[in-house]
Here is the input.
Amino acid sequence: MAYQSTNPYDGKVLQTFEQISDAQLEEKLTQAASCFESDWRHKSFAERAAVLARAATLLRERSQAFAELITLEMGKLIAQSLGEVALSAAILDYYAENAERFLAPEKLSTPRGEALVESSPIGVLFGVEPWNYPYYQIARFAAPNLMAGNVVMVKHASSVPQCAQAFERLMIDAGAPAGAYTNLFISKEQVAQVIDDARIRAVALTGSEAAGAVVAARAGQNLKKTTMELGGSDAFIVLDDADLDKAVKSAVSGRMGNSGQACTASKRIIVVDSMADRFLEKFQAALENFQPGDPMDKQTTLAPLSSADALKNLLGQVEGAVAGGARVLTGGGRIAGQAGAFMQPTILTDIDKGNPAYMQEFFGPVALFFRVADEDAAVALANDSPFGLGGSVFTQDIERGKRLARRIDTGMVFINSGASSSPELPFGGVKNSGYGRELSGAGIQEFVNKKLIRVS
Ligand code: NDP
Here is the structure.
């Protein structure tokens, strides 16, 4: 598991990083545990908030440099990288401002005496994080948990080591004591050792189902709580009374944002029959308009995938779908003449239940298009998935949209937009998309001890 920065636009290796030794890992665990016990857990909310707010300010002041690192390491369009930096700063500020309120002691009404529930930190937390939003993913893990008084250790994806280091540096520059936030360049074996370590009290992972299953099982053996933010195959439902242009525009950004590499991307486009032809014509035209190029160039509209391997996997999935009977309406292959990991924006139709694609997540610019008879068929198809992360419903009748939203088995449903993330909105899923919530008031409650204090 070598930590290596490779620019997916041209395949150039930018920098490699050594994994740390077991002795270095031990030092870092000791430092984190001692920071928790002797320092961070005793700080006031105001003191912790000062560090997080300073980190948010620094992120904004240095946003161009932070954004360029994302674009260099995983290929995101620079405008989207800047957006991610701004969102990460907003998350830090949000918890700096609201954590004390979220964790305020709660007085219970009880027939006799007095009862209070207080929230206290539980210790050192371990996060395993993915490359697709290299700062946002760690901000939404670190910010609430640091504000709760826990300290965090992060094993970031091996393809974004520069972003991983930059975030650790940011926290130190913002005044976090050594051990409050620790980046770990460690192997998979060391991930297991960290989970086993008695000083680690809980584990959070964002990534694939495969990684989630391994990490959750290990934590389970150790009786440690976990949260899991895994894959998704969000349904994007367009009903007969939808605003067609708005729906098409949202489907395009929902499927193409981050080059399609988002867990909540609009992966299954489900349109009722009466709208399907008109929708598909506009959707196809829009996807064919994307222009590949250097993601650092503001004019580029189509970024490469995060790595050559990601492209290979996606091409394999498209091949499997076609072998299973799907039709390629547009795209379907890599973009010729580009050195980088560029995938053509693709639409697959005629995907039957027996097709492997029917149940798969496509992590890239490949839309699975389904035509259905009506609203009920749309809901049935949306729910016929191992995943349950997000979803969208397009209708001009908001009450109808809400009724439909209640029937969709996911953690989030967006009416008249693609999925989005914001500090104040809970994020997470059900089924194979995982469990637990990040962000909002819910996100800060996952790893605290809700301690009852009873006075008789
Ligand atoms: P992974 O799940 O493999 O990577 C996510 C994180 O988990 C990385 O830090 C990775 O480390 C680590 N990891 C992976 N396997 C193990 C393991 N056995 N033990 C310990 N740590 C592990 O994601 P990929 O990059 O491989 O992406 C593949 C798929 O994951 C995508 O197609 C998508 O389905 C899903 N995904 C979902 C995301 C989401 O936001 N929910 C984000 C990214 C991916 P390392 O990088 O060193 O392997």
Observations:
- The chain has 14 helices and 20 strands.
- The longest helix spans residues 78-102.
- The pocket of NDP is lined by residues 1, 128-132, 155-158, 188, 191, 206-208, 211, 214-215, 229-231, 263, 361, 363 (CB under 6 Å).
- The chain has a mean pLDDT of 98.
